[in-house]
Write a structure and sequence with these properties.
422 residues; mainly beta; 5-stranded antiparallel β-sheet; 34 strands; 5% helix
Amino acid sequence: MGPVLSRSVGPDLCESGERSHGYRRASSFWIAGPLGSSCGAPIVPRSGPAGPRHAVDLRGWSIPARMHAPLGLLLLALAAPASAQVARAEVRGVLVGSEAARQVQWLDGTVDRTLRITSVRSRPGRVAAFGGGSHAAVALEAVGGSPAAIGIFDGATGRLLRDVPLVGAEGGGLGSAVALLDAPGTEVPSCLLTASDSTSLLLLRADGTLEVAADLGERGAAALAPGPRPGTVLALLPATGTLAEVDLDAGRAIRTLDVGAGSSLLAVDPGARRAWVANPASRAASSVDLGSFQRVAQFGMGASPTDLVFSADGRQVLVTHAAAGTLTAYDARTGRVIKEAFLGRATAGQIEARPVRGEAAHTRGVDPGDLALAQDGRLLLVVARRTHELLVLDPVTLAVLGHRPVAAGPAGLAIVSGADRP
């Protein structure tokens, strides 16, 4: 015969007569204190005076005391959110470059420890993960008589695998890499890139082979992003202010849109339905519907944008403003400011975010630069260039949860995710 359920004897008492730690919940049992006490098991998160607690709704029934400990242990194991477990498995590490030190730093997925520091031959720039997190690419500037290059790193260990010089078929330099993007639908892990002296969209494989994927007709496309259809990518060409949808099979642009000369920042929502294009010089941004490939909204920004990324649900766009020292969350559809936080140093060794109080509050900024958001939306990182730190923020409240010192002159940032943690 299975265990017999009996009703609780009161709204804040368990069957044994113990008080349930002040949580009055007639239809649930709270986990608080030892598992062998009155409290059931965590399934639905609740809040109480001492912080978050969890409860399982038993519709007014309680469980005999002899079953509390084993059932509590079982439900405690089952109650851990599946998404949290996936997040821990997905985030392999974080790569951040250092211009001054000429290093690439590999941190663990919690941003608590530096696992590897790699010296590189020249100043690093853009950083991007590719191959589903199996690899990462770091742009390296030209130095001396050597051309610019791409450093290919192992996505599980952060180890530098090889340098690939950016040279054309005839041996001439292509210039420094400007934009990097994980290449869609390739059998071999590959990334797409643009270079400052080339009109080509280039495909770089993890084995170091480099080839032309498409002709963009303009040098130095400033940004790349996933396209709205399989086998397509978006390229932003700042000289002519053109947003182009490029078909990789055809090797050319199939749709273009004028978004204003000087536009150099691009982000696409997770469903590739909407894009944001920003112009740092004019402090303006546009929202583009990728289905119709038309601008659906234009709006001004209070400060020049530095970097931007969509939230995991696609409803907001997070933007750093270096000159103002702020991180701002905008409504992706209307451009309305939802919240804004000034990133400032309170005391040595402590970083805080606080609401913006006007221009005078911006004098203690940390010079926020690149930002990166994990695929599940739980980890938001911002490079603090003035204080040489990596800020860890809550993507919902924009509160700074912690900071990690990095080598001087941080530039380039990527969260490397994959199916399995190494």
